[in-house]
Known about the structure:
- The protein has helices spanning 3-23, 43-48, 99-106, 163-173, and strands at 35-42, 61-68, 74-79, 89-90, 141-143, 146-151, 154-159.
- The chain folds into 2 domains: 1-30; 35-173, no CATH class.
- The protein has a 7-stranded antiparallel beta sheet with strand order 1-2-3-7-6-5-4.
- The chain is α+β, with helices and mostly antiparallel strands.
- The chain is globular and about 65 Å long.
- 26% of the residues lie in helices and 22% in strands.
Amino acid sequence: MNRRTKTTLIGSTALLMGALTMTGCGIGQDHFDTAESKSADTGAQAVSSGLAPSWLPADAKDVKVQQRTTGDERLLVADGDLELPGSCRAVATTGKPSKAELAASYRGDAKTKGEKLSDLTTAPLLTADWWPQGQEKRTTTLCGRWWVSSSKGKIYAFAPERKAVAEQVTAERG
């Protein structure tokens, strides 16, 4: 193949890839409604691997996390007692943290520090067979960005998504 043919071929390929990206077809298309499940045997393993937040008790067992791969939303469940560090804050009304409570707690988390409350969701879009629908409405404690509760020997936690990502997810679901 001569140099001119190679240049033409490379240019045509670049043009085609650009067109596909701009039309949303194939290469370059963003998918916001993607998630993955991960697990760890213990809270200590989950925290040390970065799977779970540092407030999760080390002796928690059977830790499961459902996480959005294109955003910050997370669902977490673990077996164990809810003994949380002093940095976690109880909410005055179960399931309904006030704006002041959210602002104070979110300031202490690297993912939400400096975020406007109006830019974050207050209910999960993620689902998992182990996550009871509406569990966030049972929130008793905020640990940074995490809405935390416990029931029947299980710890549940939800970390919110940015509304811009949530809107993309909703649009994809059509």
